[in-house]
Every structure is written in C-alpha cells, then in structure tokens.
Amino acid sequence: MYVFYVAMLKRDIVGHKVLLKSLYPLLHLQPLKKGKLKLMFKNTSFNSIGGALNRVYALLLSFILIIVLTPAQVSAQDDGIPTDEAVIASGEKLFKANCTVCHAIHDKVVGPALKNVHQRRDVAWITAFVKNSQKVIKSGDPYAVKLYNEYNKTEMTSFDFENEEILSIISYIKQESSKNPAAAAPAAAESGDVAAVTTNQGPSPFVNVILIVLTVILVLILVVLAMIIGLLKKYISQKDGLSVEDQEIASQTTDFGALVKSNAFLGLVAFIFTAIVLKSVIDGLFTIGVQQGYQPTQPIAFSHQIHAGQYEIDCNYCHTGVRKSKNANIPSPNICMNCHSSIKTESPEIQKIYAAVENNEPIQWVRIHNLPDLAYFNHSQHVDVAEIECQTCHGPIEEMDVVYQYAPLTMGWCINCHRETDVNTKGNEYYDNLVELHAEKSKEPMKVEDIGGLECSKCHY
Amino acid sequence: MNFNRYINVFAILAAGVMAAACSARGDRTGVEYAPQMYHSVPYEGLVQVTDYEAGRWLTSTDEGAAEFYTSNPNNPHSMNMREPVANTVRRGDYLPYRIPKDSIALAGRVLKNPLDSTESVVAEGKVLFSRYCQHCHGEQGLGDGLVGKVFKGVTPYNSRAVKDKPEGHIFHVITHGKGRMGSHASQVSVEDRWKIVRFVQTLQKQ
Q1: SS in 3 state form for A392-420?
Q2: For the whole model, what pTM was predicted?
Q3: Chain B from 140 to 159: CB within 8 A of any A CB
Q4: Domains of chain A from N-terminus onward
C-alpha cells in the first residue's frame, strides 16, 4: 500500500499540490502489488536547505510516479468510452456550451480539473453526478462527499443530459486529457495579457530618463561652447596686427553691472515679480473653501480604475442611492462580497473587507466631496431626472486609481452649468406645460435657469 | 535701501506662500472659509467626526462637544447612519418577500410577476439589467460579462439547466442569490427585480 503524507504540501507551491493531488485518486485504483512503500514527509520547515531538498525530491518523485503509473493505468482499462470522431465532436460542443463556465480540462476553475476524470471515476458514477450531484452526495458516497466539502460545498448544477450525451462529453474529456496542457495554455493566457496591457497606460519611466539625459547633454554643450568662445577670444587678443573691428570684438565684455543698475531693467524685474506674486495671491485666495484636488488616502486601496474602468461595472451597482436619494451612498461590504467572495480573496486589501464583515465593524472611508452644509444638493434629481453623466461632475472617475475631487463644487460652477444646460424634458410629462409656456416667449431651448435654476432658495434654505 | 522697503516685499511674499497653502491637495482639505457654515449641525448620513474636541478653537463655549463633532453615541459604532428598525415595512412599497432562501422550488411554483410583459417594462428591465447584472452575466446573458469571466461559473441563461426556470425562480435568485451569486435585495427594489425578471425571460428564450 502506498501511504503518502501530503500534509507538508499544505503551504507549498501549487505545482506540487496539483501534481500530488492528481496522483491521489489514481493510486486508489491501483492494484496493491508492489509491496510497501512509505514516503514520510513530516511537517518539516522549508526554510532550511534540507527542506528545499525535500521539496525537490517530492517533485521528482511525483514526476516519476506519474510517468510510471499512468500508462499502466490506461492500458489496463477497457472503459467503453467511444473514440469515434463524431461523438467526440458532439461532446466538445456540449462541453463548451454547458461545462466550461465551471470546469476546465487541465485547470481547477470553480469545479475540479476534469483531466483523466474517466480514470478516477467510472462512467456510471459520473453520469449520476452530472444528472443530480446532490442526490449522489446525499446517498453518502464518500468520494462525492469529500469532493463537495473540498469545493466549499458549491453545488453543481443538475443537467438533464441523455446518457449518450454524457458519454460523448467524457470521450471529449478523455481525448483532451491526453493532450499537452501547454498547447492550450496560450489561448487561456491571452485574455490575461490583454488585461495587463490595458492597466499599464501611464507614460513609461524611460521617457523621463531620456528627457533628463537630453537636458544634461544640452547643458554640457552650452558649457563647452562658452569655453570655446573664451579660448578663441584669448587666442585672437594675443595675436598682433588685428584690424580695429576685430580688436573691438576681441576686447568686448558685457558689463552686467551697468545693465542690472539700469532703470529699465529694474522696472521690468519689479513688474514681473509683482505680477507673479499678485497672481499667486489671488489664485491662492480663490482656493479658500474650495477642495478641488483633494485626494485623501482611503482605508482600503479601492481602485475605480479597475472596477469602473477595466471591468465596466455600472456606478449604480455599488452607489445604490444615486438614482433614489440625495446621497449616492458608499456601498456596504455585502455589495463588495457579491464578487469578492471568490475574486482576489488572497489580496491584503480584500482581507480588510473580510475583517470588517467578521467583526461587524464599519469601514471608515474618508469623504472627499464635502459640499458645505449651507448648500443643498440632490443626486437623484441630477442623475435620474436630468440624466447627467457621473463624469460631468466627478471627472474621469473610471481612470482614477485614487479618487480626487475633480470639480471645484463652487457656487459659480453650479450656476454656470444651470445657465448652459438644457432641461431634459423628453418623455417627462411633468415638463410639458413648462415647455409650452417657454416656447411662447423664446425660441431657445429651455435651460435650467429658465425654470428657476438660479433661485437662491433652490439650494439655500 | 531702508528696512521698510524690504518689509513690504516680504509681506507680499509671505502672503503668496500662505495663500498657496490654502488649496487642497493629497490628504489636505485646504482652508475653509467660515467653517461653522460648512459643517452640518444635524446628523448627516455619510459624515462622522468622532473627535469630541474637533474645532474647539472656533467654538464659543468650553463645555459640551466642539463645533465639528458629529456622531451619534446612541448608535452602534457611534455612526450617524442607522439601519431601518427591524420588522418594519416601508410605506408605498411592495410587501417584504418572505419565502426563505432554501425554498427556491416553492418560489418557482407560487410567485407570479405583478408586471405584464409590455415593451416598456422589458425596456426598463434591460436598463436595470445593464446596471446590476451585465458585468457578470454579459449583455446577452451568456455568462460572459467582464467580471463573469474572472468570477467563472456564471451560468448562461439559455443553457439547458436554467432556460426553462419559471419567473418566481429568477426573482428568488436575485433576492437571495444562488450558489456563488450573492443576494442583490439590498441593491435592487422589488419592483425593479420584477422588471429585470421580464427582461431575463427574453434572454432565456434566445
């Protein structure tokens, strides 16, 4: 009997784990004839060289065992799985239409990798499981129960396939199992590459390096030129018999002192200095009470660029209040968990959400858009009724890794928009009479200011 | 050059530097004008300042909470927000959905969609679908949304396993979730769920 002590692999490289796991079921079916072989890998520390060696041995052993055992297994079995091309083709079609959402041949997806499933279980068992997995699990079949628990009690959907259809799928899996996974890998990796490319959009650091190098070179050239001029002048002045014109040029020196002391120069400098200082003072004063550009560090490094940009999740999915209430709302963790129950579960940032849910503690996000208490603003009015895009006020939110306040949110900014924007009256009978009255007086389309968008008490009360 | 002339220049320079420091950047909110008018006196849902002494410098009294303090010690975690009282029903809305999560077959048998399958209902359902479902289930409900591809295991609506599921089943799944899908009851109102059901039914038939 082969006894494998796999506990050591608990915290180890996935490659091992998969290799040994794929061996595991295989060995269950293997007749016991080769005597006792005990491979005891105690829970050793891998920080030592010995540990590393153990790892290598384990890898080697698993390779050897796979090579030795697999052919014996295949040749020993006459499983009645059709090898007919047409059957395999129809199996492929069914597999791709129904199974690929949860299963792959070589990789564990939602459900286990199906490579060599026909060797692990017989056709009757697979058929029963596909038709109604819960029935098999409830019947107490130990393998099914183990599988169910291993995959976090995820129920497999029941499929009402005919027996022949299931057989055709198995035949397809069998054929694919014998293929090299490396051949299928590029196709799978492709989508990942695309994602990687789209995330890397900023200018490459090389551009900056090149610019700096160019500047240094230009400065050096300037210095060298100045030195050359100096040398040439020296050379000319030492020469005898120069004409008067040449002598003038050679003895020419710029009198910086006189230039600096001249009234015109002083006046110019004073003017530029005052202008710059005045401008910065006025600009600075205008930023008082305006939080444009405020970009606080948030407790969780949530990226809108990934969620709204890369994955195109609608803003409304998380900001549930945006069409219903004054506030757009910050999503509660249960909304995060709709996806992050199984996406990026290892990320330390996502772990913070898990911690918050477990301890039943609120996540303390830092509020960015702080409209003063003296002004009233309502999201639903603008987003649901007026159908204004979020980006109009929040800027290119789908490109922001860390959100900052894009608009100044000043009164002038509000008023300006109310002056310029046409009222979205289409399909809204509330506005019918207003549009009629407006049309009597003016030929211009009805702007927000025409229906009281500039009234003080609209926003201040 | 006398000292007085310099002082003017320095004053202007200092004013410039100070004014430049007023603007908001990074973690700094910048200078507020008349802060008493900026900070809400009543409780506001998405604001919480737990520091009792915040803004003491412009508070007229030395007793009690300072000007900026806003949090409700009666609530859990002193939050200003509160969940609706348990077992209360909002007025003017549908009655709460009572069928428990594990009775999905019952839901499929007994639930009837209160909305007719009119063109406008399906169109509204489609818009809602694009907001709440599309990133996983895909535009055509084939389970190929951008998130769905990463999430894996999103069943296509027209697959044999689910294409004949009744409307009550769909409603129940949106409300309680199923398998790895989470509950969307907190995001989508009952009426909106029924609209989505109407649209999903058109995708089942494709």
Answers
A1: HHHCCHHHCCCCCCCCCCCHHHHHHHHHH
A2: 0.70
A3: 143, 146-147, 149-156, 159
A4: 2-76 (no CATH), 85-185 (1.10.760.10), 207-253 (no CATH), 410-461 (no CATH)
